[in-house]
Amino acid sequence: MSKRQLYLVAHQTYLNRFKTFGFWSVVLAPLLIVLAIVGITLIMDATQSHKQPTVAVVANQPLNRYLKQNKAVAATFKNVDSLATAKQDLKQDRIDGYLTSTPTSYALRMSVDAENLSETTLQTTIDQYHMLSQADKLHLTPNQLNSLVSKPDFQTSIYSKSGKSSQGGQATDQANQMLSAALGIFIFIFLTAYVGMISQEIANEKSSRIMEILLAVTSPGIQFFGKLLGIAGLAITHGLIYLVVVGVTAIFFGDNQFVKLIKGLLTGVDTEFAIMTGLLALVGIFLYMILTAIVSAMVNDLSQVQQAVSPITYIAMIGYILTFVLNGQPNNAFINALSYVPFISQTLMPARLGLQYANMSDAFIALALEIIVLIFLARYGLRVYKRNVLTYNDGNITKAALLSLKGLFSKKS
Predict the structure, then answer these.
(1) Cα 28 to the chain's mean position, in Å?
(2) Is the pTM of the predicted complex or chain greater than 0.90?
(3) Is 202 exposed, middle or buried (0-12, 13-18, 19+ CB in 10 A)?
(4) If DSSP codes are grouped into helix, strand and coil, which group holds residue 77?
């Protein structure tokens, strides 16, 4: 195999795709979506009304006085003598709502177009008032009351397989779940984009009969690996562009609230995790590209590409879907086993690493299995490619695929 010819095919494939709108739409679409979300959020925050609602406290001067002094609730409180007066004021838009009370209950009525009011904060404040009122009736001293209601200090720590301890709690669980889901979405989009590119590249040349001309001056191996290397170069370029964007954002917009939020989600993620995730995803993309190239060589024209490539996309969806159910299931034997399986591990294993359900040793095993399957698929996939790239079969693609596997592993092939 001529290295120069291999380089020329890879270089030509890379440049042809690099200059297309399709490649840059794949690169820029996620960035534009993120920018759009950030922009809409900023606009909504800037245009949001910060006016405090006015709430009438019906016939309860002590409660009204306590709410005003407490100032925990972002609202303006006023006392009214009767429920009828409160209803009349609400009807005429002089207040946004009213609060009624009995010795054992409280009720808030708000207008549908009222300004935002934190009901949770209001309920907490009322609970405090009610507790103080009951303590006063029972003649409890402030110290006795504090001793009665004080809560013991309780902390939760999570010790991961990587030997790191982190704070637990609902917020941490939600952050970890978001991280695993984001990894699954990102890697799945990456895979489907480059699976589509390699399938179109090979099927287009075969259906237009250009492949016959190309193979007159080069070998099938050069065309096979050259196109794979060219598309792989695009995937690497794509990843590097995102790394540059992330680096620039972290340096120049480190104090932005959205950047801080993302940094919070990545707590516990280190350089080893980033490198291992990149390697797993990259080798996984190579696996899918080789498999797609093999399948694409069996089609007769572009109209059959979608039919042929669909099963490959379904395989990629397995890991993608499982990332959404991974959180909270560190000992699920089925998911843990699938995280080592090539064609699925590129999504599941990074998600398990992000959740700290797996360590680097587990990731190295998954990566080694991917590389072994990659070598095997590249070696025997070339044989399938050679058999089918200049063969035009009428009828079922599955039948043609089964016939191409006949005698594949024999030494005479």
Answers:
(1) 17
(2) no
(3) buried
(4) strand
Q: What is the CA radius of gyration of the chain?
A: 31
Residue 264: per-residue pLDDT: 64
The neighbouring-strand residues paired with 109 are 98
For residue 269 the two structure tokens come to 């993620």
Give the contacts of 6 (CB within 8 A, at least 6 positions apart). Answer: 222, 225, 226, 229
* Token pair 């002590």 in the structure block, residue: 62
**What is the arithmetic mean of pLDDT over 17-28?**
88
**CB distance 282 to 194 below 8 Å:** no
Q: Hunting for tokens 């590097």 — which residue is that? A: 240
> Residue 397: which residues within 8 A CB-CB, separation 6 or more?
298, 299, 304, 307, 308
**Paired residues of 54 in beta bridges:** 76
DSSP β-ladder status, 97-101 and 54-58: parallel
Q: What is the DSSP letter of 53?
A: P
d(CA 266, CA 278): 15
Closest CA to 284 of 229, 344, 234: 344
Place of tokens 């995730």: 277
Q: Do 201 and 368 meet the contact criterion of CB atoms below 8 Å apart?
A: no
Nearest CA among 298, 322, 321 for reference residue 308: 298
Query: pLDDT (tens digit, 9 = 90+) per residue, 373-388?
Result: 999 888 888 887 777 7
CATH 3.40.190 is held by the domain 54-146: yes
176 in Cβ contact with 266 (< 8 Å) = no
Positive or negative CA dihedral for 308, 310, 314, 315? Answer: positive
For the record, the structure tokens of 195 come out as 């699976």
Say how far apart CA 79 and CA 226 lie, in whole Å.
80
Query: In the chain, what are the domain boundaries?
Result: 54-146, 169-404
At residue 355, what is the residue type? Answer: L
Asked if residues 170 and 256 have their Cβ atoms less than 8 Å apart, the reply is no
Q: At what angle do helices 360-388 and 345-354 cross, to 10 degrees?
A: 170
Q: Compute how many other C-beta atoms are within 10 angstroms of the C-beta atom of residue 193.
A: 19
Chain segment 128-173, per-residue pLDDT in tens = 888 888 888 888 887 787 777 777 777 666 555 555 545 544 455 4
